[in-house]
Amino acid sequence: MKKTILLISGILLIALVLLTCASQKDSYSADAVILDEAIGSAANHFIQQMPSAARVALVSFDTLSGILSDYILEEMWTRFEDSKKFVMVDRRNLERIEAEIKHQYGANRVDDNAMVSISRQIGAQYLVYGQMVPLGNEYRITVYAIDVEKAVSSQRAFNVRPDNRLSSLIKVSAEEEVQRSVKEMARNVSKKTTIAVGRISYGDTQTVTNLSAWLKNNIITGAQKQHDKFQVATESESSNLAVSSRGLTVEPTGSSSGTDSAIQAVVTGSYSPLDTGVQVTLQLISTSANRVVLSSSSFLISASEMERRHLSLLPVQNNTSVNKADFEARQKAVAPYSGSNNKWNFTVTPDVLDGIYYDGDYMTMRIFSARDCYFRIIHVDVNGNTQVIYPVSNNDNNFIRAGETRRIPDNTRFRMHSPFGEEMILVSAYDRQFTQSQVTGVLSEDLIARGLTVISDNRTAMTPSATARYCYTILPR
């Protein structure tokens, strides 16, 4: 009797599995195809439509992963090239142009008019690109082709049902995505290049988190594997470059014609939230005077991967990530220190290129001013508490001459320790000496507004002629 029941149960289970599979299969669109079929159909359509001997350029697709984007581009390129019908635009030149696209426009796809302009720069008559996005339990791939002379575009779109190949291209680890980006950087340098990893921050802010540190470590690991193309700079070399930089756009200081570092390129980047995770964009930028973008790539780190690795998109306060509203309020409060209305060139730069310190590290900063002025430095700690840290005594000389770069602190040391998280340095410059006063309290717009005004020696209220700031993060070792 038990054997009969088990047999019936087994038959029912198999039937249920078959019904489930059939149900899933039926849930796909009637016209859904697998990825390779979609790529082949789109390529064949445009190959037939475009005139012989046309100069054709292909750029990367916007997809859920960089590896998937690379796969689609390679497959499309192979089909166009194998047709023997077109003149394919040099890929190295194309990658440089695409890097510039991403540098100027970020993660947003450029509109058709901009694409036409870019295509003309590289001498292409047709530009092929596309995107692939989720659509229920399927995906939608759209391939565009722009006729540069006529400034018109056409498209082909397909519903794609998942198969083993597509799943393997989408479900890649964050480490694999970083490795792919580093390999792409390596392809875009013609000789062995010494590189450093700079600030990889949240959006267009200077905020760095443990995600920044995780990305840096994986970039370094990937670069070390590309030993024929990359030499990773030492921390000392990176520090030398940091103090001769304006933030992370590498520029010479006012008193120097350039950096004395052997570093030839810097990896910088940013990340921003998406519904499905975090979008990361990395760039390899030359340290030469023209600061050419040598390579640029983007990829997604899924929300589940972020959670599994305990990575934080926003800074941490008291071991907990701050919410977005509090973060935006904090950014708004320190906006007066953005330097956007400076009357002359005035900057403050930390001694680390990536904006990350670890427990026990010491911090120094460099202040540069194009004019004679008096300055004041305010420190904002992890909890938002503010205090003036320079000048605080008669031993502190807060005067800086035009064209001079001052190293601060000059008679003490700033040591990093817990609590861990994001802190800020805010610096303001004044035409005349002022009465030393403390700015204390929890960071707020009102506190910052009141703290900007100082009293000169003749009791005249003064507002700063220039401001500067930087964020940094303290992490446990």
Please explain how this structure is put together.
By secondary structure, the protein is α+β, with helices and mostly antiparallel strands. It has 12 helices and 26 strands. Strand 3 and strand 4 form a beta hairpin. Helix 2 packs across helix 3, helix 7 crosses helix 8 and helix 11 runs parallel beside helix 12.
Features:
477 residues; alpha+beta; Rossmann fold; Immunoglobulin-like; 3 domains; 7-stranded mixed sheet; 5-stranded mixed sheet; 32% helix
Radius of gyration: 27 Å
Helix coverage percent of residues?
Answer: 25-40%
Derived from helix and strand composition plus strand pairing, the structural class reads alpha+beta
Low-confidence stretches: 17-25, 246-260
- CATH fold assignment of the largest domain: Immunoglobulin-like
Number of E-type strands: 26
